[in-house]
């Protein structure tokens, strides 16, 4: 059973940076696409970024393109989300997700089978 554990959330000022980590276990890391999603209070869960199972392809939501970077360390079985130039509207609970096979960009993540517990990111103005 795949398990995902996020860490690295917290409080940042607008314009600042945070790095989220997602530790993967219970499966073959290279056969799963991984993604980051977020959900703000009163809003639907939304796609942030995804990385293909091979790591060769990455996709971003327009709202974070150029500011956020998704990456992975296969040796450590960890996926990262580097968030720069943070804005108050980035405030949300961030979730790591995984699915076997190809990455899916966009949407609310319903194609992803495995989810972490979430980590809070709060950006103050």
Question: Can you give a write-up of this model?
Answer:
It is built from no helices and 11 strands. It has 125 residues and is mainly β. A hairpin with a 6-residue loop joins β4 (32-39) and β5.
Distance from first to last alpha carbon? 40 Å
How would you describe the shape?
A: globular
Share of residues in strands: over 45%
Question: What is the alpha-carbon Rg in Å?
Answer: 13 Å
Q: Provide the low-confidence segments as ranges.
A: none
How does the helix and strand content classify structurally? mainly beta
Largest sheet, strands/sense/barrel: 7 strands, mixed
Mean pLDDT: 96
The ordered string of helix (H) and strand (E) elements is EEEEEEEEEEE
The tally of helices reads: 0
List keywords for this structure.
single chain, 125 residues, four-stranded antiparallel β-sheet
Q: How would the blueprint of this fold be written?
A:
Elements: E1 3-7, E2 10-13, E3 18-25, E4 32-39, E5 46-51, E6 58-60, E7 68-73, E8 78-83, E9 92-100, E10 114-115, E11 119-124
Parallel strand pairs: 2-11
Antiparallel strand pairs: 1-3, 3-8, 4-5, 4-9, 5-6, 7-8, 9-10, 9-11
What would a concise description of this structure say?
This protein is mostly beta strands and 125 residues long.
């Amino acid at each position: 059973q795949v398990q995902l554990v996020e860490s690295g959330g917290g409080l940042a000022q607008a314009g600042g940076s945070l790095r989220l980590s997602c530790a993967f276990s219970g499966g073959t890391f290279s056969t799963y696409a991984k993604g980051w999603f977020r959900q703000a209070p009163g809003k639907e869960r939304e796609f942030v970024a995804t990385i293909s199972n091979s790591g060769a392809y990455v996709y971003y939501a327009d709202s974070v393109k150029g500011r956020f970077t998704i990456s992975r360390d296969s040796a450590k079985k960890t996926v990262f989300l580097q968030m720069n130039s943070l804005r108050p509207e980035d405030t949300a609970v961030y979730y790591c997700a995984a699915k076997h096979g190809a990455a899916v960009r966009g949407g609310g993540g319903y194609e992803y089978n495995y989810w972490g517990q979430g980590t809070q990111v709060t950006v103050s103005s």
